[in-house]
Amino acid sequence: MAKVISFINYKGGVGKTTTTFHIGCALAMFEPKKKVLLIDADPQTNLTFLCCEFPKWESRVKTNGSLETVYSAYLGKEKKSLRDIIWTKPMTRPELANIDLVPSTIELLDIDLRLQSKTKAATTIQEVAQIHLDQRSILSKAIKEVASNYDYILIDCPPNLYLATQNALYASDGYLVTLMPDHFSTVGVTFLDKKVRQLLRERNLAEQIIDSNNNGEKTLPYFLSFVKVNVTAGKQQNVAKEQMALVRGMSDFTGKCFDSHTEDYKDIREATTEQLPVFLNSPGSQNDVLYRRMAKEFRLKFPQS
Ligand SMILES: Nc1ncnc2c1ncn2[C@@H]1O[C@H](COP(=O)(O)OP(=O)(O)O)[C@@H](O)[C@H]1O
Ligand SMILES: [Mg+2]
Questions:
Q1: How do residues 240-296 score in pLDDT, each as one tens digit?
Q2: Which label site among 74, 156, 289, 298 has the fewest CB atoms less than 10 Å from its CB?
Q3: Domain ranges, ordered by start, for the chain
Q4: Is the pTM of this model over 0.90?
């Protein structure tokens, strides 16, 4: 059964997509090779376009749908199985044949509002709890249909914690927060941590309201990983070092930070332009080495049971 991991941060530009893509590619490419499903849950479609060309995506989505199709079915449109939506082997390189994709589209942009607007008037606390769970279990239910086909399912989340991200969290066995070591990110990570814990507590509460025998306090294993660490000698490099040490030293995050990290080098931007992971575009480059290391740690920290 697949291990489902979400890559989250309420901020954009902090390496969520790059890390989802590289960890996914590493799991699929390096021994022991894993079967990986990438789910692009961000309307910006960046992960999708790391995996495929625009014209192919356009015709593919027209005929088979996208992640938005999964939500649309909940909103009353025709239901399509995730099996039909999944794009098998979207990338042409044989090394990446173990990767499948659930593509995204811009239509995901207002999905939170659309899901919210479906909230029916509830008269009992049980109904409120049921609607709460239903609105957040759409992705989880869809994933269950295909989970046995994969070793890992990685979800690239949008830069917020609204319903689409909450659906990803409800479907997940754990999550990874990618973090750039600067002042703002460090302040935000404590807030993010509290917020996600609160969301999971709300799920427990809703489940207990539905089923009073359910006393299980479900929490999710999670880790933080530093990415895009500035290594240009000078003030910014010092800030990066200080901020990493600060977060690693916080009691909330004891044992929660990956030892591995990635650094800010052009190898990533060059690989992105070629729609390839650094492992194939620039073997031996700085982030080739660093992302291999991170993927190894990922396997250890999120073992596939
Ligand atoms: N280690 C890195 N070194 C250099 N550039 C990076 C690195 N990681 C990510 N980037 C670049 O930073 C930008 C934001 O990364 P992205 O993964 O898209 O963030 P997010 O998904 O959180 O918005 C992208 O242009 C990406 O190519
Ligand atoms: Mg992104």
A1: 999 999 999 999 999 999 999 999 999 999 999 999 999 999 999 999 999 999 999
A2: 289
A3: 3-179+261-301
A4: yes
CA dihedral of 282, 286, 292, 297, whole degrees rounded to 10: -160
Pocket test for ligand 1, best of 228, 229, 230, 258 (most atoms within 8 A of CB): 228
- Of the listed ligands, the closest to the CA of 48 is 2
d(CA 80, CA 72): 9
CA distance 283 to 288: 6
Tokens of 168: 């990803």
